[in-house]
Design a protein that fits this description.
This protein is of the alpha+beta class and about 325 residues long. It folds into 2 domains: about 140 residues, no CATH class; about 120 residues, no CATH class. A 5-stranded antiparallel β-sheet has the order 2-3-9-1-10.
């Protein structure tokens, strides 16, 4: 096995469970391990198979008994905080790691083997579960969710996952020039919600919106027109804050101030917060557009963007 990096050496050994022999077997059998997904179901559709690892119960027990978890999030393990020379006699304390490596819970196999497509499918699968899934060995930054539906308020039921896998696979195969854009949209849609501050999460969702606009091929003269064009193209109800009054909407005004003036709701960043709940409503709107971009229709997409409660996708 290759020597561990300094970062790996600094992390608890419980996070590194794979042997070099197992890594070789994975390559030969053409599957990729990923996690963290709290689901014991298996799915097989077309040339794709997703199934839990044989020790998933052990992994779930590890999550509950050894991890730093709170309100649906997994936080990094702690380590002793470093000190400058003049701080050595000051109070000693522990801080969270900046990066951590989560244990895999499932495997994904496709034929013919395509490592880039597998990464795309894993990320997309996480979107439909409402969590952020990573291939084994990839580092997580900050915190990641483990409760299904945590990031979107939507959870899969019935045949949602097989239908989602087919849609993701078809998009990847039929849109070679848009694969990278969709990967970026899914990645930042999910990772952006792990950020700590509301203006950071808002900025992340706006970038997702811009990414979806580019993928859609729709046209718009101003930024304020983009969500309108997307809603019209995919028949998704437009939130009140995205409706145009004059040349601007509440959304575009907030975006322009944040991106160009270091302001947020007319104040220096951090001094004010919008009355609108963008953490819920913006994520909900983007989630519906993502599903529509993948060619899917669902009961969830028919609800207003101001309504968010735990519900099933119920993909048609």
């Amino acid at each position: 096995m290759a020597a561990m990096s300094d970062l790996q050496k600094s992390l608890p050994s419980v996070l590194f469970m794979r042997s070099s022999r197992k890594l070789i077997l994975n390559v030969r059998e053409r599957f990729v391990e990923f996690g963290f997904l709290n689901d014991s179901n298996s799915y097989a559709v077309d040339n794709i198979e997703v199934k839990p690892m044989h020790d998933i119960d052990k992994k779930i027990s590890w999550l509950k008994n050894e991890c730093c978890i709170s309100r649906g999030w997994i936080y990094p393990p702690k380590r002793k905080a470093e000190k400058d020379k003049d701080e050595r006699n000051s109070h000693s304390f522990e801080r969270f790691h900046d990066y951590f490596n989560i244990q895999p819970t499932h495997t994904l196999t496709i034929k013919p083997y395509d490592p880039d497509k597998i990464k795309f499918l894993i990320l997309g699968l996480g979107f439909f579960y409402g969590v952020y899934l990573l291939p084994a060995g990839h580092y997580s930054i900050n915190r990641i969710p483990y409760k299904i539906g945590k990031l979107t308020g939507v959870f899969p039921s019935g045949k949602d996952i097989p239908k989602a896998l087919v849609a993701l696979s078809n998009f990847y195969d039929l849109n070679p020039k848009k694969r990278n854009n969709m990967f970026a949209v899914l990645h930042w849609m999910l990772v952006g919600q792990t950020l700590n501050h509301s203006w950071e999460r808002f900025e992340a969702q706006y970038k997702v919106l811009d990414g979806l606009f580019k993928i859609s091929g729709a046209t718009a003269k101003f930024h304020s027109d983009r969500p309108v064009a997307l809603g019209k193209k995919y028949s998704i109800q437009l939130p009140e804050w995205a409706k145009i009054n004059g040349k601007h909407s509440k959304l575009s005004t907030l975006r322009n101030q944040l991106f160009h003036e270091a302001l947020y709701v007319d104040k220096p960043i951090g001094y004010a917060h919008p009355a609108e709940d963008y953490d819920i409503e913006f994520v909900t709107f983007n989630s519906k557009i993502i599903a529509a971009t993948l060619g899917l229709a669902s009961n969830f997409q028919k609800n207003g963007s101001s309504v968010r409660y735990k519900c099933a996708w119920e993909i048609e």
